[in-house]
Amino acid sequence: MASFYRRLVGIFGAASLVAVFMAIGVISVAADEKGATCSNGSVAPGHYDSLTITGFCNVDSGNVTVNHNLTIAPGGGLNAAFSGSDLTVGHD
Question: Containing domain of residue 55, as a range?
Fold first, then answer.
C-alpha cells in the first residue's frame, strides 16, 4: 500500500512540474496589451499596440496583430511560419 501512495505522489509531482514548465514556456505574453514583450515560447493570439521580441518566440497558436512597432532585439528571433497563424504588422 505504501508503494501505491509513493507512486501516486510521484505522478502528481511530475504532472505539477509539467504544468509549470508549460505555463512558463507557452504563456509568454498576454493578448490585448499596449506594449508586450515575448522572451521565449509562443506569442498569444490577439492585438498588440507594440511587441518586443527578446528571445526566440513563435506565432503558432492563432493570429497576432501588432498595430505599431514590432521590435526584435539583438539575439531575438521570431518564427511566424505556421499554418493557420498569421502575423500582421501595421504602421511600421
Answer: 2-89
The alpha carbon dihedral of 17, 19, 20, 25 has a sign of positive
Domain count across the chain: 1
The answer to whether 15 and 34 have CB atoms below 8 angstroms apart is no
Burial class from Cβ neighbours inside 10 Å (0-12, 13-18, 19+) for residue 89 reads: middle
Q: How many residues does the structure list for the chain?
A: 92
Residue type for position 22: M
User: In terms of DSSP bridges, do strands 64-66 and 87-89 run parallel, antiparallel, or are they unpaired?
Assistant: parallel
pLDDT in tens, 23-73: 444 444 444 457 899 999 999 999 999 999 999 999 998 999 999 999 999
